[in-house]
Design brief:
This is C2H2-type domain-containing protein. It is found in: Nucleus. Keywords: Metal-binding, Nucleus, Repeat, Transcription, Transcription regulation, Zinc, Zinc-finger. By secondary structure, the protein is α+β, with helices and mostly antiparallel strands. Among the domains are: about 30 residues; about 35 residues, no CATH class. Helix content is about 35%, strand content about 10%. The chain is globular and about 40 Å long.
């Protein structure tokens, strides 16, 4: 078996424009509270809260507002990781996962917390960290009312639903 074709299309210098706002004025989502440094980034984010989601996953039924989000989600079921790092053997299901990882190879960490001076190589790690200070939880469970500040905590929580212990999950909410 030959490995799947690598879709390593990352440019050497990737500039992330839509990082959460560290200064003022932040552009905040009225639905979930996530803030952005640019109004256009918030506008793109607001589409995620649209009530109509015409693209449904054939495995779990989850709906998406754009086909590209469905394609990316389907990789969670198939395990496909077409994006590969050119500096190490790691592979990723999404281009954004590769971009975040690629920053981890850099000597200088691009994101610094102004509240506690911690530094991070990825925008997603920085976002998750800032939620510790704000109490914001951007990763809601679609099966119950719990929310989490880190995607890994949500995944661990979802395992409780998968093994039939949803009642245990709800009782701890």
């Amino acid at each position: 078996l030959s490995p799947p074709k690598c879709l390593n299309v990352l440019a050497e210098s990737v500039k992330l424009l839509c990082f959460p706002a560290g200064g003022s004025p932040p552009y905040s989502c009225p639905h979930c509270g996530v803030s952005y440094s640019q109004r256009g980034c918030l506008r793109r984010h607001l589409v995620l809260h649209a009530p109509e989601k015409p693209f449904a996953c054939s495995v779990c039924g989850r709906g998406f507002i754009q086909r590209r989000y469905l394609v990316q989600h389907e990789r969670t079921h198939t395990g496909e990781k077409p994006f590969c790092c050119s500096l190490c053997p790691k592979r990723f299901a999404s281009r954004s996962g590769l971009v975040d990882h690629r920053n981890s190879h850099a000597e200088q960490k691009l994101y610094s917390c102004s509240l506690c001076e911690k530094s991070f190589s990825s925008a997603s790690s920085f976002r998750d960290h800032t939620q510790l200070h704000t109490g914001q939880k951007r990763h809601p469970c679609t099966l119950c009312s719990k929310s989490f500040n880190r995607p890994g905590l949500l995944r661990k929580h979802l395992e409780k639903h998968a093994d039939g212990s949803a009642d245990k999950v709800r009782s701890t909410a």
